[in-house]
Structures are given as structure tokens and as C-alpha cells.
Design a protein that fits this description.
The complex is a heterodimer of chains A (661) and B (829).
Chain A lengths: L7 H19 L4 E5 L1 H10 L2 H6 L2 E6 L11 E7 L3 H17 L5 E7 L4 H10 L5 E5 L5 E4 L2 E3 L5 H6 L5 H17 L4 E5 L1 H21 L17 E8 L4 H5 L5 H8 L2 E2 L2 E5 H4 L5 H6 L3 H6 L3 E5 L5 H6 L7 H21 L3 H36 L1 H15 L7 H9 L4 H14 L5 H15 L3 H10 L8 H4 L16 H7 L25 H10 L1 H8 L23 H5 L5 E5 L4 H11 L5 E8 L4 H14 L3 E7 L5 H8 L10
Parallel strand pairs in A: 1-2, 1-3, 3-4, 4-5, 7-15, 8-9, 9-14, 14-15
Antiparallel strand pairs in A: 6-7, 8-13, 10-11, 11-12
Chain B lengths: L9 E4 L2 E10 L11 E5 L6 E5 L10 H4 L2 E5 L5 E6 L5 E6 L5 E5 L3 E6 L4 E6 L4 H4 L1 E7 L2 E6 L4 E4 L8 E2 L8 E7 L10 E6 L2 E5 L4 E3 L9 E4 L5 E5 L5 E5 L5 E5 L9 E5 L3 E5 L3 E5 L5 E5 L5 E5 L2 E5 L3 E7 L2 H7 L6 H13 L4 H9 L3 H14 L3 H17 L6 H17 L9 H7 L1 H10 L3 H10 L5 H14 L4 H12 L7 H10 L3 H8 L5 H10 L3 H11 L2 H14 L2 H9 L2 H11 L4 H11 L2 H14 L3 H14 L6 H27 L10 H10 L3 H10 L4 H15 L2 H8 L9 H9 L3 H7 L8 H10 L3 H11 L2 H10 L2 H14 L4
Antiparallel strand pairs in B: 1-2, 2-29, 3-4, 4-5, 5-6, 7-8, 8-9, 9-10, 11-12, 12-13, 13-14, 15-16, 16-17, 17-18, 19-20, 20-21, 21-22, 23-24, 24-25, 25-26, 27-28, 28-29
Chain lengths: 661, 829
């Protein structure tokens, strides 16, 4: 039914590419491109540098470096108009170019995702609005994978929870409107969390506004968007705030661990060449943009991590414990495949082998990269410190008395373990057990500022503001399972949920998992359990009733009970608003649509993680998607990728008392 | 009445025919002396602007007419509006294809009139236009180029956000004539200008002026064809040349046999040139063939992309090339199937059997014949002939078994629309081609601009196009002109527009506000469903708080920021804070924006809000940013002082730690002075300072700091261990090992020292780890390479299996030793 046959991922990738190239084409001749840092990566996801070159881009600069030169008459800026800092940076660059260039520049700005009123006033203030050509690049969802759409908003987490800036909610709403305009309205919006509620309200509001505009012909003549979609089942919005805890744990899938140890950004990891070898896989090199970096940093190499690498797609969502096995198996298979050349007798067989050779080589290369990477990760995971950290985490997650482990944390502080790691542990404890005892918190504060510098007083303040690290107040000490305290939903009650949603599954097998808990080796992320409460009710029910988890494939839901039905009370113990909204359309039209499309189609569920998602959660959602494959398709949407370290980075004060020379 | 002969006004020109269709008569009143006027006609049969040519003498009649003005007429001569002109000499008068009138005065001011009724915006050309003066202007559909008196060219290519741009500097000399190629048809995608200077022609684009090296100048006229492919030039001798726009080939030459230079040179479509004198028009086709038309009075030529409109006092005519389909049907002696089909209509009406014969004869090509008739109907201006052609088509398709009638139906719809707007009361003489290019939406816009609301609504209903803009325009006009009180107007408008989808009340409210009816504007705004749309207007109306609330309601942070930016500059600080205080989203955004940009504002905000910790944190950030030490400590003290009144334990701790920070800085300064040449300690954390002191061998000082800052014993031990290992100070470590007890146990000593590679020293610590199980201790010994010692451990634990395992790893004397122990343990047989 969709006007464009491909998946959402393809559609958004093509659209973004087309939009950007069209804009570039509009600037005649060769041009220099200045991209803001947080856009360079996402742009690299859908367009290769060589293609940009075809469209006349001569050199690419990073806006933040402030070194755009006058080598070309045309200069194009690509920046976020909603980030005031970037707008100011663009204005400064332009003023600089105008001041000291003896060339008269032809300046263009492509604002992402739209031209804003504030950007106008800033440019006006700078007195340059008359000298630049301004266009918009409506870049919202960037596909990371076929089933993952991300807004790639790096700062979304700290914006939302630290600065309390609702900008990314609006941004998300716009992006989701794109999906709605493509497929029709989400028949149902289910969500958890206060920000999620706000997002849903915005969606409803925008729909109303669109209705008003659509009939006026401003939004094109298509009236099809007015209907609830026939191909979509629902949208599930999970506010990160509901479950900070899970994200603070160390991710234990392969991809998650790469993210924890090396860091994955825009599907790429910067890995030391001593680990993966200096020669880049040609494929990876091609798709890695930003040429000015490749030459300089000899020590780091960008490794492309996406489904184009077959081996990686096998490994990524597996628990790290079994990655070694898989690698061994693949290595052995490759070996035998390769040895088959000796058994090749006829020339046709030989030719067949030669034809397959490039594929072998590619696979071989990727095998080598991943084996080395896995070994490197293994080195970390075997270390004394890593094991200590994990132990503290697992015990926190399992709900044992955290004060028991304070000594271990103190030791880690004295051993100068990175601050992020320490803070993650403390925040984890605070989230899981409703805050730290004030006395403990004070002592940790003192030790941490002494160990890492007094500037981190600001860090603590930020963490408190984000409600990640708080003293246990008298109101929250009484986190009794059933009553839920005086104001239910002001905090996520892990103690209660751990029991009632079976967050801890000790007996989960890492090799042949029967539950999503495998991603944290025995702890099921609350966020995912919530999604399961909507999608896999019978399974969760059987889990809670304590029935043996042998029913790995859940009984198909005969009665589809929509929304939170059946779990309203349980879900109340998680923080924030709970809602399930039905978007109604014209009844007649719906029925007509249903008859057209039939009822047995596989419908899509969009799961939107507001504030970021971890790789482990993606793995868990994929695990669910595989179980649900005969009935529905799951598309994961998010504001960006996140992990505990990145959550901390938003809060950690970067300045220090040392003088910088 | 029999229809006029369709061939009546045909003129053969080479291989093709041109025809001149009379559209309207009695255009202007007698006293409009056309010869004294500059005329500019909007494209697509649009309005005509008349301005008296001030270089010519005119008859004085009364004071009223003596005033300078621009008069706007429809093509049928209906006077639409008069713009009184008192802004200086007009150097350019032209239209955009949105039917906006552009008037450029000598001093470089550009006025853009939209909507035909005198609403305008203006901007200045800049680039020295004020100093040199504008000499002339040339227009294309969405922009224009002005020629300044110093031969500079200034181009404006977008009226919504006009950005006058200088083209490349051109050579000195007298510009005898000039013309432009619209950006759509140039390689550079920018407008290019042909400038006839002296004997040659220059092609000027934004980067360079290229000399085309011609000898026959000075050219008195230059004109580029609508598609930019050809150029018509009039040479010094008065002959007309048609050359390609790259000046590489010459297509045709024509001698008009007249001494007088023609007044205008224009293109009639892409194939013929029209040159006009006062009362004579020559139509020049390929290879120098020409047709001549003579008039009694002055004739003005208004070019269109598919022909020209010829306007005299009495008539408005459209001269264009006869299209192929029309030619195929009407040409004398034509035997084309379509022509035969048309004939059979006559026969049919006479009930002659030959009608059927004809049909059978053209049977194989009947579908094309029908198509041709449908198309030809479109190009016909006379409804009689349109009907006849459609009838023929209808007859033809009735004979066919299968025919897709969509085009036929569409054509009837289009013709209905065309007929309606061609009526002289409306006066939009669109040709079929023009209508296709203009699009129905823009046609409706033009009708709205003429305030022909009823017709516009009818057409939009007929074509199923959205009509909201028509309603909005109507309502805006209503607001402007109606004299009744606000409530009544609002009620009237709301009543009329009720249930109409997509109405933008914001635009109507804007109109009301511009008219000075603020109350009405607020009333109207309440009916606007889109919160975001209301905000800018509300700000303009100084309804600040409502604007802020609406902005927050819309969820669009940009809008909120915009309002805040506006309010911050406008309101006194205190009331600004009061406004945002009650709105958490707003104050959060103010905080975010101010952070790192306007810390003073932040401090004030936190002070007013009574948030001492926040305020103190701002100072702490400032302390971090400060480069000089005294400044840092000063800020720290300020930060600490802000917190001094509070009894809250968190605040007390915060304050304590702040003073600790300054204390640390002070000590570090001393350390730097005493121990290091340059700043080495300053800014380090306490732990790092202690670590570095021990590493550099200042254990005493380190100890002093530990006690001064009450550092936990364990932490100190860890730091000392790590620092000494890093220093490779094995002696000192051994010394420490002589202690009885360690608060962190001895295992870390073993681990760290082993990690540094000193197995011998590490092994010293194994026996001290008394509370470890035997297996682990064995492993520890083995790691130090002391298998025998491990054996002893196993022996003590009486673990034969472990011993046997160790045996495999041992060699030399150690193996013998283990053997011995195994034997000792094994019960003798």
C-alpha cells in the first residue's frame, strides 16, 4: 500500500541522500563543505564522500574546527539550526570568511532539519542574513540498519534530562510524522514515561494541524494520510527515564561490548590499528567519510559495523560468552571451504572456486578483524577490575544489598578507574534502590572529588538534576512492593518490578537463549519487559506465574488485548505516565481499507526509545522480533544510541583547575 | 451566425502559418494617448501597467491627470487600479510571473506591488545604485537585472528574499542596447546579460564578461528568444540578424527597408521576431521572410512565451504561430483525417450519407483524428469553433469501439475555465498553452488578486482545488474595508468560513492587525488551530505572555526560544524573570541558552529564584574557566560564600568541599614553587597530587597532605602502592611489606608488583596473604615461577591431586622436590 515499495530504512536513506544532493546541485560549481561534527557522522551513513565529490564538493571541513578556507568561491554550511551554538558558529565562520577573504564568497547554509526563527534572528544580528542562500535539509530519521531508525541526536539524552530542553521531543514528533505520512496514522500509541506522554500529545496535536493543512492543499493533494494505517499495528514509546537502570549496566552482547570498550558511533568504531591491522577493508574505507581524518590518524582505523558484514550480523546480538565459539566455527568452515580448491577437479569447478574467491577473502578479512577485536575485548573482560565492576553491577541488578559492595567501589576509586565507570556504579545503585543513603552519598562525593578533582561537584549536581544519583529521601525509603509509596510513578520501583516482571532470570542460557535476559547474562532490561507487556502478554504472564520457562515460544495470543491491558497495575510502579491512545479515523474508510488489505497481513510495530537505546536492548528487541516474526514486524526507532558511559559524559564536567597550555 | 472563417487572419511565413486573433476591442479611451506611455504587460495574459513617458511632451488637461501615476488595466481595458507616483523617475517597469508589478526608480529603490491593489514591499539595489543611478532594467519571470549608469549590472533573482548581486564588471563604453538570458536557460544557472557596447556584444555572467567579437555594431536592439537559444539584433545599418545565443551561427537576415530604428524588437514564440514602430509591425520568420501589419494608431507589443499581444487603443490581439494540429485541420486543401472528420460534421448535419463514407475512409486513423480535433479545440479562441471541433471529436469517438475519453473530458473542462476568464469583464486572455503553464492554482490566485472571489471559488470547486486561500483573501479584504464594529466582523467571518477546512485565521488576523484593529486580531486568532502560527503575530501585537504560552503549547523549542529572545531584549530583567518563572520549560531554555554565553544573566536568575547551589555552581564554572590562579580562588571563595547561610547538610558539604578546593590549590601552588620548575601540581586532584608526590619521592609531604585532607587510609595505601610500583621503588615496597598489617590487604601488593614484572618481590607477599585459600596461593606462587613453593602450599593442604598437577609444570630440582612431597603424602604401599 505504501507509495514507495521499500522498507522505511531504504526510503529514509534514499530520501535523505536525494535531498542533500539536490541541494548541493543547486550550488553551481565546486564548493567547500563545512559540516558540524554531529552531522558529519550521520551524513556519512547515507552518502559516500565519492558521491559528494561528484556533486562538486571539493573539501570537507568540520564546523567546530573553524578552519574553512577560501580555496573555493562556494562555501556550503551544513548545521543544526535548532542548536543555537552551531548557528552562532556558522555566523562567526561566515563573518570570518567575509572579513579576511579577498575572494568574494558565494555562501550557502543548509539548515538541518529546518530553518528556525532563532537562526534567522542570529544571522540578522550578525548582519549576514542578506549575504547567504539559505535552504533546509529535512533530515530526521537516519537508518542504522534495516530495522533501526535513529535520529542520531548526540545530545538528546542530556538535553532531555539535564537541560530539560524539549527540543528533541519535538524533533522526534516530526520524524514520527514522516512515518505516519508514509503509512497512515498509528492506529494505537502506547507509551510509558512523562516525556513519552508529551511526545504522544505532540503527535496528536500535529495530526490535528496536519488535518487542517492537508485539506487546504498546503501539504499536497493526497488525503490518504488522514486514515489510520492498515499496515501498522501500533507505536510504542518508551521514555529512557523509565529505565535508566538497564542502560547503566555493562552491555554483554558482542556489539554492546565493542561499544563499551571501543565505542561505536554511526555504525563505526575507531579501533587501534595494532588490534585490527592497518590495511583497511576496502569496503570500510569507502564508506568512511571525512577524508581529512584518514590521513592524519595513523593509529586508528574505522571499522564499519553493520549488516553489510555477514559475520558481524551473526555475532552482534550474541552474548559475548559464545562469540568465541562462533568465531571458531566460522574459521573452521572457511578453512574447509578454502581447502576445497585442492579437491576441485574439472576446470568448471576450479572456475567456480575462483569466482567465490573474493567473497572468501572478504569473509576472511572480517574474520580476522573480529577475532582480534574479540581477543582485545576478552583481555578487558578478564581483567581484575572489569570483573569487580561486573560483580557490583550484577548484584545491584539482582537486588542484593548494595551497601555491601561499597568497599569494592571505594577500592576502584583509589585505583583510579575512569570516573565514568565509578559514577555508573553509583547511579546504578541509586536507580535500583531509590537513592543512596545520604551518609554514603556524602562519603562518595568526598572521595570522588578528591580523586578526580573538585570540579566534579558540578558533575554531582548534574547527576542529581537528571535524577540519576540522589540521596534516599524519607519518602522513597519505603519502597514497599505492593503499596508503591505515596506518589506512584515518581520513581521506578525496581524492587517491585524485579519480582513482578521477572527481571532476573538466573537460568537463562547464553548459547540458546529462551529469554531476553541473556543480553545481560541473567537480567532482562525493564524497558524490554515493558515492550513485552504489550506484545507478548501470555509469555510474561507465564513468567510471572512462576511457570517453568520451557515455553520458549509463547502461545500465540488468541485474544489480542491491546495496550497495557492486564498489566496496568504492574506498570504503574515504573516511573511516569502510562497511556494507550487509539487514533480513530473515519470508520467507513477503515473498514474499506481492511477489506482491501485483508486481515492476515504482517503488521509493523514501531518501538520508539525516547532518550536513546543501547545495543543490548536492540539485541533483545530483535530477539522478540524473531519470535514474533509470523505475526508482526518490529521497527526500532530512537533518538540515538546510548550506553552508560555516554549517559555519564553528558553530566561530567569537562573543565578542570589545571591550566591549559 | 455562421462562425468566422478560421483562416481569416492566417499569414504564411515560410513553411508555417501565423495568425493574429482579435480578442478584445475598445480597450482604452480615446484620451489615453498610447504613444506617450510606457507599457508593461504581465505574462500569461496578465494586467498591463501604463506609465506616462516623462521624456515626451503631453497635453495638459487638468491637475488630476498631470500627476504622475501608474495605471493598471486588464487586457480588456478594464481599469483596475491607479498608483499615484511621487517617488522619482521610473527606470524600470515590469512584472513577475506571479503578477507582481516591479517598479525601479533611478536611485535604485525597488518596489514590488503584489495583489494589484497597491500593497507593496520595497528594497534597495545597493552596490552603488544610489550614487550612479539606474539607467534601465530588464525582467524575466522571477527576477530582473538593472543597468547602472556606470555600466555595472545588478541582478535580483528572487523577490521573496531579494539579494541584489553584482555581475562581473563590464567594459567601458556606450551601451547601445542590451538583453538578458533567464537563469533557466544558461549553462551557469545564473542570469546572463548581453550587452551591446560599441561595435560588439559582451556576454556577462557573475564571473566574467566575454567579448563576442562582432563588427557590425553598434547594435540598436538586442533581444533573446524565450528559450534563450536565439538572439535578434539590429545592426548599425538597420538590418535584423537572428543568431544563435552563443554567436556562432547566423540563421537569418532581414532588411526592414526603413531608416527609422524600430521601437521594439521582441520574439513571437521561438521562431519569429516581431519588430515594431509606432504604427507598423513586422513579423520576421526564418530565412528573412516577413509579414507586415499596419495600424492606425500606436501599437504596443507585449511578449508572451508563445506569441505576442498587440495592444492599441482599439484592440487587443494575440499574434502567434498556428500549431500543427490546427494547421492540419484548417489548412486549405488539407486532407488529414482530422480535417475529414470535421467535414463530416457538416455532412452529418445535412444528413448526407457521405458522412459515413468519410468516416469509413479514415477509419484506420480515426483515433488520431479524434485526438487532433480535441487538441485543436484547445488552441481555438472562438467558442463556435471549439464546439465544432469537439463535436467532430465526439462523433469520431462514437464510431470507435474503444476510446479513452479522459482527454476529451479534461479539454471540455479546461475550455470552460478558459472561456470564463477570457470574458472581457475578467480580461485574462490566456491561450491554451499559457493556461497549461500557468496552472489552475495560479490562475485562481490571479482571480483572487482581482477580487473575483465568486469566479475563483466556482473554478476551484469545478476543478476540485482547495479554496481556503480564496476565503482567507476575502476575509482579509473584509477586515480591511468593513466599517462595522469588530465583533460583527469577526462573527461574520467566522460564520462564513465555518466548516471550511484549512482556513488560516492567522493571516486574517495579521491583516486585521495591520489595519490597526488589534482587538479584532486577537479575536480572530482564537480560531486558529495551529498554535505555532499564532506566535509571531502575537509578539507583534505585544501579547507577550500569550505568545509565550502558545509557543510552549506548540512544543516547538525554536518558537519558545524565539519568543524568549524577543522578550529578553524588550522587557526589564525583573519582569522577564517574572514571566519565565512560572513556566518551567521557558526557564529551562533560558538556562540552557545562557549557559556559557551569558553567565551574568544566570546568576541573576538563580539569585531571583533563590537557588543558591545553582548560583554557586555558576561561579564554580567561572573559576574553572579563569586562567589566573588568584582569579580562580576568588571565584571559588565567592561560590562558597553564596552557600554560607544554609543549614541544609548537602549545602554544607558542598561549601566544605569548595573551600577544600581552594585550600588544595593553595598548597599546590606552594608545591609547584618548591618542587617543580613549572606548574606541575596545580589543578591536579588530591589523589593525583599525592600520587605524584610519592612517585617523585616526596613521601613526607604526601603523608602530610593525607592527614591535612583527611584522606582515607585505604586510599592512601593504594596510592602509595601504585606510585611506588610506577617508580619501581622496590626497596620502599619491601620496607612496607615489613608492616604487620595493611588496610587493603597484601593481595593488591602482590598483583601490582607482579604486573610490573618483579616476580621476586611479588613472591614476598604471597605468604602474607593469609586468608586466601590454598589453591589461589598455589596459583600465585606458580605465577612467580616458584613451583616448589606452590608445592609446599599443596603439601600443607595435603592436596595430592594439586601436587600431581604441579608436577607436570615443574622441571629440574623443583620437580624432584614435588616428587618427594607426593611420596611423603602417598600412603606407602
Amino acid at each position: 500500500m505504501a507509495p514507495y515499495p521499500g522498507s522505511d530504512a531504504d526510503y529514509f536513506r534514499d530520501k535523505a541522500r536525494r535531498d542533500l544532493l539536490n541541494l548541493l546541485e543547486g550550488v553551481r560549481g565546486k564548493k567547500n563543505l563545512a559540516v558540524s561534527q554531529d552531522l558529519a557522522g550521520p551524513v556519512g551513513l547515507f552518502v559516500k564522500f565519492s558521491l559528494l565529490q561528484e556533486y562538486g564538493v571539493d573539501r570537507v571541513f568540520l564546523l567546530e574546527n573553524g578552519n574553512v578556507d577560501s580555496s573555493q568561491r562556494n562555501v556550503v554550511f551544513l548545521a543544526h539550526a535548532e542548536k543555537i551554538r552551531q548557528v552562532r558558529a556558522v555566523a562567526e565562520q561566515i563573518q570570518r570568511l567575509q572579513r579576511n577573504g579577498n575572494v568574494e564568497h558565494e555562501l550557502s547554509i543548509f539548515w538541518v532539519p529546518r530553518r528556525t526563527l532563532v537562526s534567522n534572528s542570529i544571522l540578522e544580528e550578525a548582519g549576514i542574513i542578506g549575504d547567504v542562500n539559505i535552504a533546509e535539509l529535512p533530515l530526521y530519521f537516519v537508518p542504522l540498519e534495516q530495522d533501526v531508525l535513529s535520529l542520531e541526536l548526540e545530545d538528546a539524552f542530556s538535553d532531555l534530562y539535564l537541560q530539560k530542553d524539549p527540543g528533541s521531543i519535538f524533533h522526534s514528533a516530526k520524524a514520527l510524522m514522516d512515518i505516519q505520512q508514509r503509512h497512515g496514522y498509528f492506529p494505537r500509541i502506547i507509551g510509558k514515561g512523562d516525556h513519552a506522554r508529551r511526545l504522544a500529545d505532540l503527535l496528536l496535536r500535529m495530526r490535528k494541524e496536519l488535518d487542517a493543512e492537508e485539506s487546504s492543499g498546503l501539504a499536497g493533494l493526497s488525503a490518504r494520510g488522514l486514515l489510520p494505517s492498515a499496515s501498522t499495528e501500533s507505536l510504542i514509546i518508551i521514555d529512557r527515564q523509565v529505565d535508566f537502570g538497564s542502560a547503566l549496566l555493562t552491555q554483554l552482547t558482542y556489539e554492546g561490548l565493542i561499544d563499551e570498550t571501543v565505542g561505536i558511533k554511526n555504525n563505526q568504531a575507531d579501533v587501534d590499528t595494532s588490534i585490527v591491522g592497518p590495511t583497511a577493508v576496502p569496503q570500510a574505507q569507502e564508506s568512511s567519510k571525512a577524508p581529512q581524518q584518514s590521513s592524519k590518524q595513523g593509529q586508528k582505523r574505522k571499522v564499519q559495523l553493520d549488516s553489510s558484514d555477514q559475520l558481524f550480523s551473526q555475532l552482534r546480538d550474541a552474548n559475548f560468552a559464545i562469540v568465541g565459539d562462533i568465531l571458531n566455527k566460522v574459521a573452521r568452515r572457511l578453512e574447509t571451504d578454502y581447502e576445497s580448491r585442492h579437491s576441485a577437479k574439472s576446470t568448471t569447478e576450479l572456475r567456480e572456486f575462483v569466482n567465490k574467491l573474493p567473497a572468501y577473502q572478504l569473509e576472511h578479512q572480517s574474520l580476522r578483524v573480529h577475532t582480534n577485536l574479540a581477543e582485545e575485548i576478552m583481555r578487558t573482560t578478564r581483567s581484575d577490575i572489569f570483573r569487580k565492576i561486573l560483580e557490583v553491577q550484577q548484584n545491584n541488578a539482582a537486588g542484593s544489598d548494595a551497601t555491601y559492595y561499597h568497599e569494592a567501589v571505594e577500592e576502584l576509586i583509589a585505583r583510579d578507574v575512569p570516573l565514568k565507570t565509578i559514577l555508573r556504579l553509583l547511579c546504578l545503585e541509586s536507580c535500583m534502590s531509590g537513592g543512596l543513603r545520604p551518609r554514603d552519598l556524602e562519603s562518595f562525593k568526598r572521595q570522588i572529588v578528591q580523586a578526580y578533582g573538585h570540579q566534579h561537584l558540578l558533575t554531582f549536581w548534574a547527576l542529581e538534576k537528571m535524577e540519576l544519583l540522589q540521596p534516599r529521601s524519607s519518602a522513597t525509603t519505603m519502597l514497599l512492593p505492593t503499596t508503591g509509596g505515596a506518589q506512584p510513578g515518581s520513581k521506578t520501583n525496581y524492587a517491585y518490578l524485579r519480582k513482578n516482571l521477572r527481571l532476573v532470570v538466573e537460568e537463562v542460557s547464553e548459547k540458546d537463549p529462551s529469554d531476553v535476559a541473556y543480553v545481560y547474562s541473567g537480567f532482562a532490561p525493564l524497558s524490554i519487559r515493558l515492550v513485552q507487556c504489550v506484545l507478548q502478554k501470555p509469555y510474561i504472564l507465564s513468567l510471572i506465574r512462576g511457570g517453568p520457562t520451557t515455553t520458549s515460544t509463547p502461545i500465540p495470543a488468541t485474544v489480542s488485548s491491546p495496550g497495557w491491558l492486564g498489566f496496568e497495575d504492574v506498570v504503574k510502579s515504573a516511573r511516569g505516565a502510562t497511556f494507550s491512545i487509539v487514533q480513530k479515523g473515519d470508520d467507513k474508510a477503515i473498514r474499506a481499507r481492511q477489506t482491501i488489505s485483508g486481515n492476515n497481513t504482517i503488521k509493523t510495530v514501531y518501538v520508539f526509545f525516547l532518550g536513546g537505546i543501547t545495543f543490548t536492548e536492540i539485541a533483545a528487541l530483535r530477539f522478540i522480533a524473531a519470535q514474533e516474526a509470523p505475526r508482526r514486524k518490529i521497527v526500532i526507532c530512537t533518538t540515538g544510541m546510548i550506553n552508560g558511559d555516554r549517559m555519564m559524559e553528558g553530566a561530567i564536567e569537562k573543565g578542570s583547575f589545571a591550566k591549559f597550555e | 451566425m455562421a462562425p468566422s472563417n478560421p483562416l481569416a487572419n492566417w499569414e504564411r511565413l515560410g513553411d508555417s502559418f501565423y495568425r493574429k486573433v482579435p480578442i478584445y476591442d475598445a480597450i482604452f479611451e480615446e484620451d489615453v494617448e498610447l504613444e506617450n506611455y510606457i507599457i508593461a504587460g504581465a505574462p500569461y495574459g496578465g494586467a498591463i501597467a501604463l506609465h506616462r513617458d516623462e521624456s515626451k511632451p503631453y497635453r495638459f488637461r487638468d491637475a488630476h491627470t498631470a500627476k504622475s501615476s501608474i495605471d493598471i488595466y486588464s487586457c480588456s481595458g478594464k481599469h483596475i487600479n491607479r498608483l499615484n507616483w511621487e517617488f522619482g523617475t521610473i527606470r524600470g517597469l515590469g512584472w513577475s510571473d506571479k503578477e507582481e508589478l516591479l517598479v525601479i526608480t533611478e536611485d535604485g529603490t525597488v518596489r514590488r506591488y503584489f495583489g494589484l491593489y497597491g500593497d507593496f514591499t520595497s528594497f534597495s539595489l545597493g552596490h552603488g545604485a544610489e550614487d550612479y543611478g539606474v539607467r534601465a532594467c530588464r525582467f524575466w519571470t522571477s527576477g530582473f537585472v538593472a543597468l547602472l549608469a556606470n555600466n555595472q549590472l545588478v541582478a535580483v533573482s528572487n523577490y521573496d528574499e531579494p539579494r541584489p548581486k553584482l555581475l562581473a564588471p563590464c567594459p567601458e563604453g556606450e551601451v547601445s542596447s542590451w538583453s538578458l538570458i533567464p537563469p533557466a536557460y544558461t549553462l551557469s544557472r545564473s542570469v546572463e546579460v548581453l550587452l551591446a557596447v560599441d561595435k560588439t556584444v559582451y556576454l556577462v555572467d557573475p564571473t566574467e564578461a566575454e567579448d563576442k567579437v562582432l563588427q557590425n555594431g553598434p547594435f540598436k536592439h538586442a533581444s533573446v528568444s524565450p528559450t534563450g537559444r536565439f538572439v535578434a539584433l539590429i545592426t548599425a545599418e538597420g538590418t535584423v540578424w537572428v543568431v544563435s545565443s552563443d554567436f556562432q551561427s547566423k540563421y537569418s537576415e532581414y532588411d526592414p527597408e526603413s531608416r527609422v530604428t524600430p521601437r521594439t524588437v521582441d520574439w513571437c514564440g521561438d521562431d519569429a521576431v516581431v519588430i515594431a514602430w509606432e504604427d507598423e509591425v513586422h513579423l520576421i520568420g526564418p530565412n528573412g521572410v516577413a509579414a507586415r501589419y499596419y495600424y492606425d494608431g500606436t501599437v504596443h507589443v507585449v511578449p508572451e512565451f508563445d506569441g505576442v499581444r498587440l495592444i492599441t487603443n482599439d484592440t487587443c490581439e494575440f499574434l502567434h504561430k498556428v500549431v500543427d494540429v490546427t494547421e492540419a485541420i484548417f489548412r486549405l486543401g488539407s486532407t488529414s483525417p482530422a480535417s475529414v472528420l470535421l467535414d463530416s460534421i457538416d455532412l452529418l448535419e445535412k444528413k448526407s450519407p457521405k458522412a459515413d463514407e468519410n468516416i469509413q475512409r479514415i477509419r484506420p486513423s480515426l483515433p488520431e483524428a479524434v485526438d487532433t480535433c480535441v487538441k485543436a479545440a484547445g488552441h481555438e479562441f472562438d467558442p463556435q469553433w471549439q464546439k465544432r471541433l469537439l463535436k467532430a471529436a465526439s462523433f469520431g469517438k462514437s464510431v470507435l469501439d474503444l476510446y479513452n475519453s479522459d482527454e476529451f473530458v479534461e479539454m471540455t473542462e479546461k475550455l470552460r475555465v478558459l472561456k470564463a476568464v477570457r470574458e472581457y469583464q475578467i480580461g485574462l486572455p490566456l491561450s491554451y498553452e499559457q493556461y497549461m503553464r500557468l496552472t489552475p492554482e495560479r490562475l485562481i490566485e490571479r482571480l483572487v488578486n482581482r477580487r473575483e472571489y465568486l469566479l475563483a471559488i466556482r473554478i476551484s470547486e469545478f476543478l476540485e482545488l482547495p479554496a481556503d486561500r480564496i476565503y482567507v483573501h476575502w476575509a482579509s479584504q473584509k477586515v480591511k474595508v468593513s466599517a462595522v464594529d469588530d465583533d460583527a466582523v469577526c462573527k461574520l467571518i467566522v460564520q462564513r468560513l465555518e466548516g471550511k477546512p484549512g482556513i488560516s485565521f492567522e493571516l486574517i488576523a495579521q491583516a486585521a492587525y495591520d489595519e490597526g484593529r488589534a482587538h479584532l486580531a486577537t479575536q480572530l486568532l482564537n480560531h486558529e488551530p495551529r498554535a505555532g502560527k499564532q506566535v509571531p503575530l502575537l509578539l507583534e501585537m505585544e501579547e507577550d505572555e500569550i505568545a509565550l504560552d502558545k509557543a510552549i503549547e506548540s512544543g516547538d523549542a525554536d518558537l519558545v526560544n524565539y519568543v524568549l529572545l524577543h522578550l529578553k531584549t524588550k522587557l526589564p530583567l525583573a519582569s522577564f524573570f517574572r514571566t519565565i518563572n512560572t513556566r518551567p520549560v521557558a526557564s529551562a531554555l533560558v538556562e540552557t541558552t545562557a549557559r556559557g554565553q551569558d553567565t551574568e544573566l544566570l546568576k541573576d536568575l538563580f539569585y531571583q529564584d533563590d537557588r543558591p547551589i545553582d548560583g554557586s555552581n555558576v561561579l564554580l564554572s567561572e573559576a574553572l574557566e579563569a586562567t589566573e590562579l588568584p582569579r580562580k580562588t576568588e571565584k571559588l571563595q565567592l561560590a562558597s560564600r553564596l552557600l554560607s547561610d544554609s543549614k541544609d547538610p548537602t549545602v554544607v558539604l558542598q561549601q566544605k568541599l569548595l573551600s577544600e578546593a581552594s585550600q588544595l590549590l593553595k598548597i599546590q601552588e606552594v608545591l609547584d614553587k618548591d618542587l617543580a620548575d613549572r606548574s606541575e601540581f596545580l589543578g591536579l586532584s588530591l589523589n593525583d597530587t599525592v600520587y605524584r608526590l610519592i612517585r617523585s619521592g616526596y613521601g613526607k609531604r604526601a603523608q602530610k597532605m593525607q592527614s591535612e585532607f583527611r584522606m582515607p587510609e585505604k586510599t592512601f595505601w593504594w596510592l602509595r602502592l601504585r606510585a611506588l610500583v610506577a617508580k619501581r621503588d622496590w626497596g620502599e615496597l619491601e620496607e612496607i611489606g615489613k608492616n604487620k598489617k595493611s588496610p587493603i590487604g597484601w593481595e593488591p601488593f602482590y598483583n601490582e608488583i607482579l604486573g610490573a614484572g618483579n616476580t621476586k618481590l611479588a613472591s614476598l607477599f604471597v605468604p602474607k596473604c593469609t586468608n586466601l585459600p590454598a589453591e589461589e596461593k598455589m596459583e600465585m606462587w606458580v605465577k612467580c615461577g616458584m613451583v616448589a613453593k606452590a608445592g609446599e602450599e599443596a603439601f600443607r593442604a595435603k592436596d595430592v591431586n594439586a601436587l600431581e598437577l604441579l608436577h607436570t609444570r615443574a622441571s629440574g630440582p623443583a620437580a624432584a622436590e614435588i616428587d618427594r612431597m607426593i611420596n611423603q603424602l602417598r600412603p606407602r604401599k
